[in-house]
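User: Fold both of these, please.

Assistant: Here is the first one.
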Amino acid sequence: MSSAGDIIRMLGKNIRHERVRQGFSQEDLAEKAGLHRTYIGMVERGERNITLLNYAKIVDALNLAMHDLMKDAVLPPTPPQLNSLKV
């Protein structure tokens, strides 16, 4: 099972991998996505919990579908509600 921090780091790693694969610097990607270069670096290092809107900007700048960078994500299970445990 993956923690939230694991998922954030995995996403950042996948963004970095794709950025480098396409030959972009962090500054190039930031400019294409309309974001700041330091924000891109923080996302890639897993230091920022990226918003869905900024994620959409990044995948658009990389010409990808949103699911392309989430292939390895495994969300932790949701704990059962106490009300649903009635016998």
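And the second sequence with its predicted structure:
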Amino acid sequence: MTRDQIAEEVGCSRSMINALALGQRGKRLSYEIGVGLKSLFERLENNRHAA
């Protein structure tokens, strides 16, 4: 999955995903982005286990 796709799924900018991936954003992010990332991870894990 590309960073553009992650950003689209989560509902944030690609630059936010880049900063998180590079550790430049730190540990503080909005609740909505955190929930979106968690939800995306869970969907991907469920799809992987179902395959």
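The chain has three helices and no strands.
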